[in-house]
Amino acid sequence: MRPIITAFKASPDRGRGLARDMAVRWALEEVGLAYDVRLMTFDALKSPEHRALQPFGQIPTFEADDVAIFESGAIVLHVADQRPGLLPADAAARARAIAWMFAAVSTVEPPIIERSMASLLERDQPWFAARQALLDQRVQVRLADLSARLADGLWLDGAFSVGDLMMVAVLRRLNGSGVLEAHPAVEAYVARAEARPAFQRAFAAQRSVFEASERAVS
């Protein structure tokens, strides 16, 4: 069975490639696995049929043969297991690549998301400036750590892997914020990943959905 993933029919990211199906599309492109997409409205996300696949009513999900899973990180890891290209053959290097996946979603992403949500929802509050300074500092600490790690290499641990894919998917949330510019090694790392042909194909595929939704309402 050809894999089917779910994605927003009208993504709130406005075509910037930030919705969480992007990492899954990218992984599928990296390993050369063709896939289909089931586009979901916000109402459809709450349907019993979708909640049977994704209990929280979110995207993405992944279905292929007897596998039906959710959560972008879990899907990316499953895809990486299917074909060579994203997980090292060496067991120790493989374990480190997976550790970097967890670092991306558990250590680096939380302060980035918190900063973004504060900027979006709390800007009019009298305490916003002080809180934003604290959130900026937390993000800067993580970026400084990544800069140190990247000082001697193109990727986090040898060749490009699922760890890099998930890390860059997280870091891209800072694009346009001015934050990455303070860390040239991290900024260059994101740019290298975005230049990969597989990323470009995944981005174009997701962007085409946004453009179609825009045409539909114009």
The separation of the N and C termini measures 36 Å
Mean pLDDT: 92
Name the strands of the widest sheet in spatial order: 2-1-3-4
**How do the helices and strands follow one another from N- to C-terminus?**
EHEHHEEHHHHHH
Poorly predicted spans: none
Structural class: alpha+beta
Main sheet summary: 4 strands, mixed
Tally of extended strands?
Answer: 4
Instruction: Work out the helix count.
Output: 9
Number of domains: 2
Name the CATH class of the largest domain: Mainly Alpha
Could you say which overall geometry the principal axes of the C-alpha atoms support?
A: globular
The gyration radius over C-alpha positions equals: 18 Å
Keywords: Transferase
InterPro entries: Glutathione-S-Trfase_C-like, Glutathione-S-Trfase_C_sf, Glutathione_S-Trfase, Glutathione_S-Trfase_N, Thioredoxin-like_sf
Domain GST C-terminal: 90-218
Protein name: Glutathione S-transferase family protein
Structure, explained:
This protein folds into two domains: 4-85 and 198-216, Glutaredoxin (3-Layer(aba) Sandwich); 91-196, Glutathione S-transferase Yfyf (Class Pi), Chain A, domain 2. The chain has nine helices and four strands. It has helices at residues 21-31, 42-45, 48-53, 72-82, 91-121, 128-150, 162-171, 184-194, 197-217, and strands spanning 4-8, 36-40, 61-64, 67-70. The protein has a four-stranded mixed beta sheet. It is globular, with a radius of gyration of 18 Å. The N and C termini lie far apart (36 Å). The relative contact order is 0.15. The model has no long low-confidence stretch (mean pLDDT 92).
